[in-house]
Write a structure and sequence with these properties.
Helix content: 40-55%
Largest sheet: 5 strands, parallel
Distance between the termini: 61 Å
Shape: globular
Mean pLDDT: 84
CATH class of the largest domain: Alpha Beta
CATH superfamily of the largest domain: Glucose-6-phosphate isomerase like protein, domain 1
Strand order of the largest sheet: 2-1-3-4-5
CATH architecture of the largest domain: 3-Layer(aba) Sandwich
Radius of gyration: 23 Å
Structural class: alpha/beta
Number of strands: 5
CATH topology of the largest domain: Rossmann fold
Number of helices: 13
Order of helices and strands: HHHHHHHHEHEHEHEEHH
Strand content: 5-15%
């Protein structure tokens, strides 16, 4: 609950932002945690000082906060006729670290806190209800992804990966275990693959890529700065790129030669994707099976050799 009074000993409130020339960069106020009320106050204060493009973005955020919570940065840019960089720049001017944090702050007023755990849950749900809701959500994500995934795009991805001498797999955060699983599965069928889940190593890997390299990037939002940057660098270096990402516009799509789309209904303001991971794993399963069938003899021989070695790990 906001108040204009300050408790004894509290630091003074940040000064109101000074007027800036249209289009000028505005430095965010610091020191005060960004709340929904503070965000909207800053937004209204800054609007008269902004250039036309930033004014359109600010107006859209103010009037469509509930929609923005469920949108990607690319979708907001498209709706406002602005660039993604302008959207992110405005977010930082308001004191957010980027578009993702702005959505989380906006979500404080349009969602219940329990939805940050899972969008279908109520706080009073017992274990049986939680189980039923989450299983239903996961099954629905698989059905929706099956209906969305393009067989043509899948065939293109298979041919692209088969043609590569080396496959680099990128994933950050909740996508990192998916990247590791894809790496494990590809090595078992004899492909030269490597999972790169550290952001520094990703840009090194990408900068050293070339036409002989294929990159498989996994990102639910398609807006994670590290994986978007690595995918862009790899494509600029001449690598071919396959991206597994959720349906809808996102920055990573412009750097993808092939898109394999999931359809996870979960909202994108949460920092951890849940149902999307099952959809991503299902796509990896399909991709590996198609790759193995396309080079059947080699894959079967490789699986046999690795099975013999792995049997030594079991009692």
């Amino acid at each position: 609950m906001s108040s204009t009074s300050q408790p004894p000993g509290a630091p003074p409130s940040p000064s109101p932002p000074k007027a800036a020339k249209p289009g000028a960069r505005i430095q965010p106020a610091g020191g005060t945690p960004l709340s929904h009320a503070l965000l909207m106050t800053r937004l209204r204060a800054l609007r008269p000082t902004l250039g036309p493009a930033l004014q359109r973005i600010a107006e859209f955020i103010e009037q469509h906060a509930q929609d923005v919570v469920h949108m990607s940065v690319s979708e907001v840019a498209e709706r406002t006729g602005a660039s993604e960089g302008s959207v992110v720049g405005l977010c930082k001017s308001l004191g957010a670290t980027g578009f993702q944090q702005l959505k989380i702050v906006l979500a404080q007023s349009v969602v219940q806190p329990v939805q940050l755990i899972h969008e279908d849950l109520d706080r009073a749900d017992d274990a049986a209800t939680v189980m039923a809701k989450i299983f239903h959500s996961n099954v629905q994500a698989l059905h929706d992804t099956q209906a969305t995934l393009s067989p043509v795009a899948l065939e293109q991805a298979v041919e692209l990966l088969r043609a590569a001498e080396r496959i680099e797999i990128y994933g950050i955060g909740s996508a990192a275990p998916i990247a590791e699983d894809a790496h494990y599965r590809m090595r078992r069928i004899g492909l030269q693959a490597r999972a790169v889940v550290d952001s520094h190593m990703q840009v090194i890997s990408a900068s050293l890529a070339g036409p002989e390299v294929a990159v498989l990037t996994i990102s639910h939002s398609g807006s994670t700065h590290e994986t978007v940057t690595a995918t862009r660098l790899a494509k600029e270096a001449g690598a071919r790129t396959v991206c597994i990402t959720n349906f809808g516009k996102s920055p990573i799509q412009q750097f993808a030669d092939v898109l394999l789309l999931t359809m996870a209904r979960e909202t994108q303001f949460r920092t951890e994707a849940m149902t999307s991971r099952l959809a991503q794993l299902a796509i990896i399963d399909v991709l590996i099976a198609c790759l193995a069938l396309r080079d059947y003899d080699r894959s079967v021989a490789s699986i046999g050799r690795t099975f013999d070695v792995l049997s030594l790990k079991r009692y």
